[in-house]
């Protein structure tokens, strides 16, 4: 015990295996424990960085997918607009055609009425001609 005290005052200590150490056994144990805690902390930090990296990658993929869907939606909307414009143009063409056919029908109606009148006049003339004989 006397020798241990003398060594202790000189900064030398015996560990549990009776090896001579510069650090006190308690300080050495605390240092070893701190080293293990630091190693565990570094491992956990690395694991956390890996998880965060994975999340960032996932968010990037989702953003790309969302952007792609947005572009598809814009494309579909533009296609619908152009189809609607085509339909509108077709409708206008058909309306013009209908108007043209109505005018043609009116001309034919007038022509028919005129021909009917001419036929009636001619029939009347024929009847008068026959009765004169």
Automatic annotation (TrEMBL):
GO biological process: cilium assembly; protein localization to cilium
Organism domain of life: Eukaryota
Pfam family, one: IFT20
Localization (cell): Cell projection, Cilium
InterPro entries: FT20 (IPR028172)
Keywords, comma-separated and alphabetical: Cell projection, Coiled coil
Signal peptide start and end residues: none
One Gene Ontology term, aspect cellular component: ciliary base
KW Coiled coil (keyword) present: yes
Coiled-coil positions: 80-111
Name of protein: IFT20 protein
Lineage, broadest ranks: Eukaryota, Metazoa, Chordata, Craniata, Vertebrata
Gene: Ift20
């Amino acid at each position: 015990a006397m020798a241990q005290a003398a060594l202790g005052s000189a900064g030398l200590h015996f560990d549990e295996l009776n090896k001579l150490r510069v650090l006190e056994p308690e300080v050495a144990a605390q240092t070893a424990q701190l080293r293990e805690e630091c190693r565990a902390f570094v491992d956990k930090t690395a694991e956390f960085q890996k998880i965060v990296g994975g999340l960032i990658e996932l968010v990037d993929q989702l953003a790309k997918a969302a952007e792609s869907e947005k572009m598809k939606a814009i494309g579909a909307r533009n296609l619908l607009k152009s189809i609607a414009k085509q339909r509108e143009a077709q409708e206008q063409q058909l309306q013009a055609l209908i108007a043209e056919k109505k005018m043609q029908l009116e001309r034919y109606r007038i022509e028919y009425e005129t021909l009917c009148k001419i036929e009636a006049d001619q029939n009347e003339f024929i009847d008068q001609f026959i009765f004169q004989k």
